[in-house]
Amino acid sequence: MVSIDQHFNVKGIGLVAIGYVQCGTLNVHDELHILPSKVGGNTKSLQVMDDDVPQAKSGDRVGIAIRGAKDESLSNGSMIVKPAIEDKKTNTNIPLAVIEQKISKLTLQTSPFQKRVLAEGDVIHISVDLQFTVGRIKSVEADSMVVEWDSPVYIRRENPGSAIIAQLDSKPRIIGSSTVHLHE
Questions:
Q1: pLDDT, tens digit, for every residue of 15-28?
Q2: How many domains does the chain have?
Q3: Is the same domain home to 82 and 126?
Q4: Residues 89, 118 within the same domain
Q5: CA-CA to 183 of 20 to 30 Å: which in 25, 44, 98, 162?
């Protein structure tokens, strides 16, 4: 899974996306699935630290030359993952590395400096794996809440990252960190 923070076209190379490998590995010639546009592509080449490499690993800042995708399929906060595999001949079933959530159940660990208590109807922002999305709280029960997002949030299936929860009209803005419960 690669979180994209920049993308541009390079003459003679084509579409290039820059981001961090959040988990797993990415190889030259791997098939790609771009989210949220749900467009496919192929890894033409990879660069780590301005060197051409055959593979990028978790933690690397990588430049990916993408074959078969258009500039409009990427935006800041896009995710690149390997496509799901379902091969009936070999009985292989590998789902996407992320789960798309339009509604999430969160467990909030409130910042010790935050005095504000969140309630049903409040607007919050989530930041996870370079994604920034706004949502409205549907219900609150102790330190758990259900939030409906304006645009989907993609949560890693394995080792999901902690999310930052904020309210832009709050002082301080950071409400706390959160665990996002996985469900499909």
A1: 999 999 988 899 99
A2: 2
A3: no
A4: no
A5: 25
Q: Which domain holds residue 165?
A: 98-181
Task: Please identify which residue in the block is written with the tokens 């546009």.
Answer: 37
51 phi/psi in degrees, rounded to 5: -110, 135
**161 pLDDT tier (thresholds 50, 70, 90):** confident
Name the pLDDT band for 183 (thresholds 50, 70, 90): low
Contact, 179 vs 110, CB < 8 A? Answer: no
Phi-psi region of 59 (alpha: psi -120 to 50; beta: other; left: phi over 0): left
Q: pLDDT tens digits for 113-153? A: 998 899 999 999 999 988 899 999 999 998 899 999 999 99
Other CB atoms within 10 A of residue 168 CB = 9
Q: Do 40 and 32 meet the contact criterion of CB atoms below 8 Å apart? A: yes
> What tokens does 121 get?
């109807």
Residues 36, 38: Cα–Cα separation, whole Å:
5
- Which residue shows structure tokens 């304006």? 150
| Locus of tokens 């051409």 | 52
User: Distance between CA atoms of 32 and 27, rounded to whole angstroms?
Assistant: 10
| Claim to verify: residue 147 and residue 85 sit in the same structural domain | no
